[in-house]
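tool_call: predict_structure(chain=1)
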Amino acid sequence: MNYASGYRGQEADLYDLFSTTFTVSEGADEGRVIRNFVQDLMKTTPERDLFCFSAHDNDYLVGSVFFSSLKYKQDDRTVFILSPMAVKPDRQKNGIGQKLIIYGLEELRKKGVDIVVTYGDINFYSKVGFQQISEEFAQAPLKLSYPEGWLAQSLTKQNFKTIPGSPTCVDALNKPELW
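tool_result:
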């Protein structure tokens, strides 16, 4: 398995990956929503605010994860949110997603990112170091429909302390239906 940074030149493969994965797991409507989200994320987000990491088996894209900037005006730490994440349905349950996230987190650590949050399956994300947090610890940019799935981890050795204030996310993620 090879891991790579960036998405240029593989946009169509990424759209297909996310559409297929979410259609299989959540249905056709969700597949369209996530495909459109990924498309919007890549087209409208400044490069400094977006990281994409992919897993390839030879030249075949099998998984991808995006991290986008989450800005807390009252805090000088660099925060990114992991969203979305997908592994081809026929390649799931083989550790590809976990290894891909670990690779992405290490790359973000090298780039000086302090904290990563995500919103999803506690059982899955806890395997790669995420811990459940409350909105008193770090507020989400929009109303959470599943507050139990609000998770974070520090990428530094400093104490993991509360993030004050209300954040803003990238435009593509600033949609209530994604939360």
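agent: The helical segments are 11-26, 28-44, 96-110, 122-125. Proceeding to next step.
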